[in-house]
Structures are given as C-alpha cells and as structure tokens.
Amino acid sequence: MLKTKANDDKVDTLLTKGLVPIIDLAHCGTEEAPVRSVVNRVGHQLQKCLSEKGLCLLVNHGISDEKLKTAWDHLDDFVDLPNDVRELYIRTGDDNHGYVRPGVERFDGKTPELRHAFNICTLNATNLPEEPLPGFAEHISSLAQDFKALSRFILQALAVSLDIPQSFFLEKHSHMLSGDHDNESTLRLLYYPPIIEDTDDKNDFVKGSCIYSYQRCLSDQPDFRPESNPRDEINELDGNEENKNTTVRQLPNGEMIRCGAHTDYGTFTLLAQDSEGGLEVKLPGSEKWQRVGHLPGAILINCGEILSIWTKERYPALPHRVVIPEQQHIRSRGRHSIAFFCHPDNLTMISPNDLPNTEAGTDTVDKKPRKKSFKAAKEKVYNAYQLIQKRFRETYGQQNSH
Ligand SMILES: O=C(O)CCC(=O)C(=O)O
Ligand SMILES: [Fe+2]
C-alpha cells in the first residue's frame, strides 16, 4: 500500500478488526406495522451481539445522513449564538432538557469534558431555540421522532431476543418524548471542538480551530482552571469576546477528556457520529479500552444500566468514553455525535425479577460476578426516575441537586 502520513499513524479499531457486529434493518416495516420476520431476525442477532459485545452497529435504519448533518448544522448555529442567548436554554436540572456547556459534565466525577451538549426531552418550540434559529425545532423534533420510532422497533426485537412477549418493553416505554415529564428519554446533540497544540506556547495550551467540513463553530473554547467552580470560569470566559476562537487551557496535570468513562443509565443508547473522534469501549469481560472506529451512516447501539439490571447482566451495560485522539489529523478536526437515550417511563419499577420467567429471568443462567448496580437493584427496588436522578447527581454534581 502507498505510504502516506495518514496510514503511518493509523490506529487499529474494533471495526477495522471486524469485531463490531452489524445488523441490517432494511425492510423492517413501519412504526405501526413492523415486519414480524425482521423483528424476529433482529431479535436473534441482538441476543448474540449484546450478550457477547454489549454493542452492535445498525445499518439501513432509515435515518438519512442528510438529516443528521442538518441537525449538526443547527447545533453549530446554536453554539455560535451569543452567550446571553445560549443562557436562556441552559439545563437547569429540573429535568434533563437543555444546553450543557463544556466543562459542566464530569462522568468520572472529576475530569471536565470538552463538549457542548443540547439535551432534548421536550419537543415543543418554546423549549427549543426556535426564535433565534428558525427551523431548529421542526428539524430536531422530527429527528427525535425518528430515533423514537427506531427505539420502539428495537424494544420489540429486544423482547423477542429474551423470549418474552413482543410488547413487554414497549409498554414500559410508552411515554418517550411525550413532554409530560413521565419519561427521561433524551435526544442529545453533541459537539466536540477540535484540538490543536499551540507549539508557540510549548504545549501549555490547546487551541481550537475550525477546519472540518461540519466544523462551522467559531465560538468559545472553554478555559479549565481547577481551583474554583469550573462553571463560573467557563461563564467568565464565555462572556469575553476576546477569547472567542482561542484557547482551551489544560489542567495542570494535563487531564482533559472529550467524554469521561461511564456506562449509560437507561435501557439502551443509539449513537450516530460524523467521524472517528476517539470513541472507545471496554468489551464485556475485558479491561482494555478499544477504539470503535466509524462506519459512515451506521448507528451504534449499546446497552445501558437498566437493561443490564433487567437481564441480570446477560446484556451488560457497556463502559465507554471519548478520548482526545493521539493522531494530530484526527484531533484537529472537531467531532459531532447524536445520542438517543432510551429510558423506561419514570414510574416503572426496575427489578432483576421483572422479566417473565425465561432464561433471562432465572438466576441459574448467569454465573458471572455481579456488579454493584446489580446488587443494589437486587437489595432495594427503585423506579426508573429514582435510578436516573441518582446518576445525574453523580454526573452534574451540585447543579442537579434540586
Ligand atoms: O459522543 C459520543 O460518542 C458518546 C457520548 C456519550 O457517551 C454520552 O453522552 O453518554
Ligand atoms: Fe454514553
């Protein structure tokens, strides 16, 4: 093969090694009338993928690349709005809805995360930046409905995979995106700014720039200084026009991450990404972080903590994170992703004993050591809302404690 700079520093990914299962959703029917044979086939494929790997890629899922790209353009437009306009849409913690600035989330409890996130749980235009950005609400609402429809198909296939009635999970997720605060399912738009080392400053700084095709964001790159409240510091920087387009300052210990290691809190997550930008996972039974890679157009599905509890870890929640890629040509591009977190209705009690008495519902099948989340759920049963609120408090700290 011709030797190029890009080939020289190529990193092996699970995809290049053929280790990510791919499920084809072509001809799966409509939301109202899914094709039974496809639901069954996908169910059987999910059973193998999710138990062995905790993830797989979905292709021909019906959500077009064009539609995803337009959503990322809308997010770029939002990030480019003046600070005081973005403030109006900030996530308050009453529910998960709203804008989350870089540095606010800390999945590992300490390392600030280099990303802009807009969480969407309610689809009406008053809760979305429709006024400053006409067209945002309609496009994002329509995309959220697409992800919801895809999730409803997967919920039915998941039931088949566990040999329980096809409607079992659907009934427990009947309020997704209903706007009535009965369900925490969320569409999250994410933008990870590009990172370029500033050699003039002897690598003390990392600079942001905008050279990627979907990289129209020209605005704030946050400043991370650890001693006081990071939120105040970012607010302070954000409001300062001189700092626009300039620097992300590293913590003294050099610690920065695009998204810290975590498992998702809900039933499962659907994830679309626009490029290879550092997504890593720990496959079940392995302690090694492995780069996933990027298959254009595909949507990744990974199991969350609630599905893990329900299935007694037969479908384990997948630890994942987004690192700053070591290859300069990759980290100097920004990255966009969209996650749809599929959650049960808030009042659904989540117990390992919920599933009808099948293989997944019997204690004898699973001989693996039990994780803390599983043990806790076994001792005391919480509803979906209590479980997720506890996890939000861990991620957002004090800002979520009301
Ligand atoms: O952006 C990504 O690839 C992952 C995001 C993620 O894991 C999350 O927000 O929970
Ligand atoms: Fe995640």
UniProtKB/TrEMBL annotation:
Drop me one GO molecular function for this one.
oxidoreductase activity
The stretch of residues making up the signal peptide is none
| Stored Pfam families | 2OG-FeII_Oxy (PF03171), DIOX_N (PF14226)
The source's domain of life comes to: Eukaryota
Segments passing through the bilayer: none
Q: Where is this region: Disordered?
A: 221-246, 353-373
Protein name, per record: 1-aminocyclopropane-1-carboxylate oxidase isoform X2
The UniProt record lists the Fe2OG dioxygenase domain at: 233-344
What organism is recorded for this protein?
Bactrocera dorsalis (Oriental fruit fly)
Alphabetically ordered keywords of this record: Iron, Metal-binding, Oxidoreductase
Q: Which family does the UniProt entry place this protein in?
A: Belongs to the iron/ascorbate-dependent oxidoreductase family.
Q: Which Gene3D superfamilies match?
A: B-lactam Antibiotic, Isopenicillin N Synthase, Chain (2.60.120.330)
Q: Which InterPro entries match?
A: DIOX_N (IPR026992), IPNS-like_FE2OG_OXY (IPR044861), IPNS-like_sf (IPR027443), Iron_ascorbate_oxido_reductase (IPR050231), Oxoglu/Fe-dep_dioxygenase_dom (IPR005123)
Q: Where is the composition biased (Basic and acidic residues)?
A: 222-234
PANTHER family xrefs: 2-OXOGLUTARATE (2OG) AND FE(II)-DEPENDENT OXYGENASE SUPERFAMILY PROTEIN-RELATED (PTHR47990)
